[in-house]
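F.,

This is the one I mentioned.
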């Protein structure tokens, strides 16, 4: 659609910043692009970070509707000034996420909007009158939101243990989700976790409730009860006897159990209330307010057929003819098939030996000058990058800052999938921005398909900042829309389980990362022969390994080696000095 005006609508909350670019033409208002970025609660996000987030949004626009959680009337001027820095020629309208939610759900009509996401709020309108309840922030309010439900669950875990020495049934689920081992670690985590990190536990509470966990059901009912009471209070103040009640936010959209609990409770005291989910997203409400029009927005952006076609044509997405009757194989046959298919991994690595060698030279050259290596990936690729980065300090005694892993969706994505994180191109760029990526660094993007938006966004941002860039893929036939300093394409072929790139593609990727990081550490002089001489001796096994290494190189017995290490405060390199 030819657009005479481009309108940007943004709704920022505790979980994400959602945006929509709307074109206004002869056919009316229509979404032409949209996406998400990291959270942007106005009270919890620094101005510097807000600027960084805003710079990842479309820049060539005529109007901007910026509506952020935590943005009260006293903050409007500051937010408007911040927006004017980024979009100096655009007309800017600002407000809170209540305003954009109200516009999305009700337009200019009367009714009540109940928004339950990371936080929660209830906002009603009748004519020109607005009434509000809740939404006071996570310290004193936000009852009924994801943060509230998660905190109640954490308290329940400790209360059950204190009173009965028992376990809430979902204690293990929460510990597993956070990669923690016991309650003491949980308490230490909670003392430093921010609002969003705590709120990410809400899905575990809902899952426990759906599985019949009584205490989890009580928590869900308590949250629904608070939101119901707020809704009734707002309706009473507005004299709405049979209000339209529209539901917004991730808790209602994702978890039908919450919608049912709220609806059931509200109907008891307000049987004539009409409860429904909003069919417009808040970012569209933000754009609608910025457009200053009565027109509704066509909420379906054009499908990017070319991207879908490119992904479906990737080698890793093709069916493997050798495993088409996988479910009919015996265990022995299945093992033999897996082992045979691993030959593709060795072949793929061998074909890219020259590229991997160049990668070692590039990475070691950067690290020798004091620069850093960043791995960037999503899903399996991101987890493999984080894994390799985490092994460098204990193996080679290197600083944790030297090699860093960045995964789309953050720490939560190490344990479970984070919806939409890999499609967030701006989030990848922002991750490099926040780590101060520069010409002194090298960024290795890891993507089996070679087209992951989060990874490409990070690489493009790194390239713009002068950093060296490497793209590691398992899809040689991919479209090359952007070029980087080094592109390594491992042709592992179709997976045994179609599209499951944690298999051959994952194995090849892990080995490639092993090669890059180990080769670079060798070049930095952190090995002698094939022995690790800078390993961090953080446990008994590693101290034993160090003693045996010293005994071998110093031609002394084990006890003498231990004494030598103790005399050097267990610094292996110092103990080997002069040998």
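My design for it:
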């Amino acid at each position: 659609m030819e657009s005479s005006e481009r309108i940007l609508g943004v709704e920022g909350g505790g979980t994400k910043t959602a945006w929509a670019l709307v074109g206004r033409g002869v056919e009316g208002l229509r979404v032409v692009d949209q996406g998400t970025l990291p959270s942007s609660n106005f009270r919890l996000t620094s101005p510097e970070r807000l600027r960084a987030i805003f710079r990842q949004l479309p820049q060539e626009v005529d109007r901007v509707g910026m509506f952020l959680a935590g943005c009260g009337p006293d903050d409007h001027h500051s937010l408007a000034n911040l927006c004017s820095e980024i979009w100096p020629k655009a007309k800017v309208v600002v407000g809170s996420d209540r305003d954009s939610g109200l516009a999305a759900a009700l337009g200019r009509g009367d009714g009540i909007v109940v928004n339950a996401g990371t936080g929660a709020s209830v906002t009603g309108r009748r004519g020109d009158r607005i009434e509000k309840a809740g939404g006071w922030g996570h310290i004193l309010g936000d009852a009924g939101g994801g943060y509230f439900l998660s905190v109640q669950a954490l308290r329940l875990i400790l209360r059950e243990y204190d009173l009965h020495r028992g376990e809430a049934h979902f204690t293990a689920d929460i510990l597993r989700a956070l990669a923690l081992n016991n309650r003491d670690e949980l308490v230490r985590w909670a003392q430093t976790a921010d609002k969003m990190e705590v709120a990410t536990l809400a899905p575990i509470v809902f899952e426990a409730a759906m599985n019949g966990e009584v205490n989890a059901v009580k928590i869900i009912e308590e949250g629904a009860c608070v939101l119901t009471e707020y809704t009734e209070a707002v309706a009473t103040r507005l004299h709405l006897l049979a209000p339209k009640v529209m539901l917004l936010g991730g808790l209602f959209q994702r978890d039908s159990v919450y919608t049912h609990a709220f609806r059931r409770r509200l109907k008891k005291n307000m049987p004539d209330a009409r409860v429904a989910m909003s069919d417009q997203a808040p970012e569209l409400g933000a754009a609608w307010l910025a457009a200053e029009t009565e027109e509704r927005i066509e909420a379906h952006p054009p499908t990017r057929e070319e991207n879908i076609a490119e992904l479906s044509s990737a080698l890793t997405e093709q069916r493997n003819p050798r495993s088409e009757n996988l479910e009919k194989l015996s265990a022995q046959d299945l093992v033999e098939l897996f082992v045979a298919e691993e030959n593709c991994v060795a072949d793929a690595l061998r074909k890219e030996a020259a590229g991997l060698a160049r990668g070692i030279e590039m990475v070691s050259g950067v690290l020798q000058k004091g620069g850093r290596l960043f791995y960037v990936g999503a899903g399996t690729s991101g987890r493999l990058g984080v894994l390799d980065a985490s092994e460098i300090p204990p193996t080679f005694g290197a600083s944790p800052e030297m090699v860093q892993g960045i995964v789309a969706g953050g720490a939560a994505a190490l344990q479970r999938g984070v919806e939409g994180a890999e499609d967030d191109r701006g989030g990848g760029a922002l991750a490099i921005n926040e780590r101060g990526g520069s010409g002194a660094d090298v960024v290795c993007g890891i993507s089996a398909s070679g087209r992951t938006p989060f990874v490409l966004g990070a690489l493009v941002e790194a390239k713009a900042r002068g950093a060296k860039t490497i793209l590691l893929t398992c899809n040689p036939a991919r479209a090359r829309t952007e070029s980087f300093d080094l592109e390594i394409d491992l042709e592992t072929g179709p997976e045994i389980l179609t599209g499951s790139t944690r298999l051959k593609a994952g194995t090849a990727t892990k080995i490639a990362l092993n090669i890059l990081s180990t080769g670079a550490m060798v070049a930095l002089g952190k090995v002698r022969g094939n022995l690790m001489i800078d390993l961090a001796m953080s446990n008994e096994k590693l101290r034993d390994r160090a003693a045996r290494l010293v005994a071998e190189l110093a031609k002394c017995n084990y006890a003498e080696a231990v004494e030598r290490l103790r005399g050097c405060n267990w610094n292996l390199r110092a103990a080997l000095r002069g040998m």
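The longest helix spans residues 214-238.

Talk soon.
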